Amino acid sequence: MDNNVFKVETTVDSLDVGEMIARITLSEKLCGCVHIIPDVTSYYHWNGKLTRSNEILVVFKTTTSRVSELMARIKEIHPYEIPEIIAQEINLIDKGYHGWLDDVMKETPQ
User: Which of 60, 63, 67, 68 has the most CB atoms less than 10 A away?
Assistant: First the structure.
């Protein structure tokens, strides 16, 4: 298991968009797993105003060899003008899950 694991997060405005991004990135083997978490309340500054939005959090699990490509692909297909795309390297991970993710990421894209 030479690849480290990364968790990549973004937010979207609908479940349909989250599922579309998940399907594309999974089918292209840019990630091995996606969690879609509804009903996230986001507060942020936008166009000089404090904004509140109900969003969907989309969390991807990927490896070092694919994290940059995954982030670029999310940005390419994301509907937001400036999407939040954040990657965190995972320092502690179950050995079995890490092995599964490595194996899945090595499979041929569908």
Answer: 60
**80 three-class SS:** coil
Domain count, the chain: 1
Backbone angles phi, psi at 53, to 5 degrees: -135, 145
Tokens of 60: 């991807």
Per residue in 72-93, pLDDT (tens digit) is 999 999 999 999 999 999 999 9
Domain holding 89: CATH number? 3.30.70.120
What whole-number distance in Å separates Cα of residue 60 and Cα of residue 37? 11
**Structural domain range at position 92:** 5-106
CB 78 within 8 A of CB 39: no
